[in-house]
Amino acid sequence: MPQENTSSKILLTADRTLMSDYHKNIFIGFGTCAPPNFLPNWLYTWLFFPPIKTKNGIPVAAPYGLRKIETQLLSEGFDVLTVSPTHLKKHIDGAKVLGIHVMDPFGLGPASTTFAFILKKEPYLAQYFRALLASPEIQRAKKRGLKIIVGGQGVWQFLYRQKFVERYGIDCIIAGEAEKVVGDIFRAALKDEPLPKYYEVPAKDSPSLEEIPDITKPSIDGLVEIGRGCCRGCQFCSVTVRPLRWHPIEKILREIDVNVDSGYYRSVNLHAEDAMLYGSKNTIPNDEKLKKLHEAVVKKCDGMGWSHCSLAAVAAKPKLFSEISEIILQKQTWWGAEVGIETGSGELAKKMMPAKAHPFKAEEWPEVVRNGMGLMHDNKLIPACTLIVGSPEETEDDLIKTIELMDDLRGVRSLIVPLFFVPMGRLKSEDWFKETQMTKLHQELLVKCLNHGLYWVNELIDLAFTQKWRAQVVRQFYRVFARIVRYRVKRAGIVGEADN
Ligand code: SF4
């Protein structure tokens, strides 16, 4: 691609729920999926998504995906600045193009729809995204010709919100891995050339490892990608269409250096769809590469976490998992990861995620979950788990098995969050799960999950906030928050079991 210098400025940003480092605990970010509730807005936003620190309106860190686009554009010679959404006013006058990073812009993601159903209100993340687009500074800049380009994981939601796109004058939406196409699209925007309204990056344009640039500025919570793609092919997932690629250790360490050298983060979050499979070409973990990665990372920083990992990979190599745990626990007492359970039924697993249990058989899924979760508990990995509620082929028998599984997992230190089925991946033409389809069994499952969370929440809060005095203060607020939730659900007759 030709290098060029343009005099026009490109601004990149994200709404306030994404421009936060969540008290340096990335899983707290789940709180942005909730709607306003019994806590005053100012207190809730401070607890779950306090604004990121800025210097002259420039955030000290930004979402990892936004950093990748920033680096790509810089490498192609564009004049780019990433700004905090609350400081756009200061910078927007000279800008010709505004790039906005999104995750769940309308609250249509599984977690947000579930919370919105329970609390009957629009989630915070949707409110803040709309507030960003509706802000007077963006509206003014739009009138003088500002182009708006949107990208990020949640862009599929714009297909359901065409009126919003028209109303707020969004010029182009990019879906998929954009490194190879983003330069051409921003170049066209700067030249006032026509832009595609919705551009889905074809799989053939997914960048190779060499074509993915290193971030050059810090990413929120020290997130660093170790690989892309997944080979398990679950039907409800869109990740699976992307090829599986793992970054070399040297590249991962370079990006960790960017975060650590900033002085802002001493810990790293290793991001992949399954961190246990680092370096592997299939569903069997690669002992040598996985150990080498963790040994190298632990020397670089004070702590680490994983974004996601699979129960099957943990259950497939328990000894390796313990060895990895030993490496990680040299500098910390626990670590976290997001983990998909999705169902307790082997039959349903076979239909909607036939390779999720691999190398075990799909029918063995409930056993894989029990083993994997037990290993995580013993080795101090705290999973934030998801269950899918209301998938198209779910039967009463499947739900009963999931409820039974919840009973078996009671002793496993974890959060288990039920998510209403959202049509994505190969199931994108299926119907959404609607509240009118909610049965007594669905309700029972939701209550089990709530009970499980309330049973473990205090221990999790204590583990998450152990360090400096500031963390201790924040911890007290979370404890009060958890106490109020427990009181309210007890009063509503939903939960009656003892605290942990
Ligand atoms: S294992 Fe996870 S990332 Fe992979 S296809 Fe299934 S849901 Fe998607």
Strand content: 5-15%
CA radius of gyration: 22 Å
- The helix fraction, in percent, is 25-40%
Largest sheet: number of strands, sense, barrel closure? 6 strands, parallel
Mean pLDDT rating:
91
SSE-based structural type:
alpha/beta
Any ligands, ions or cofactors bound here, and which? iron/sulfur cluster
Q: How far from one another are the termini?
A: 58 Å
Strand count:
16
Task: Describe the 3D structure.
The chain is α/β, with parallel strands linked by helices. The chain is 39% helix and 14% strand. The strands form five sheets. A six-stranded parallel sheet has the order 4-1-5-6-7-8, with helices on one face. Strand 6, helix 7 (162-167) and strand 7 (172-175) form a beta-alpha-beta unit. Helix 9 (249-261) packs parallel to helix 10, helix 10 (287-300) runs parallel beside helix 12 (318-328) and helix 15 (396-408) runs parallel beside helix 16 (440-464). It is globular, with a radius of gyration of 22 Å. It starts with 8 loop residues before the first strand and ends in a 9-residue tail after the last helix.
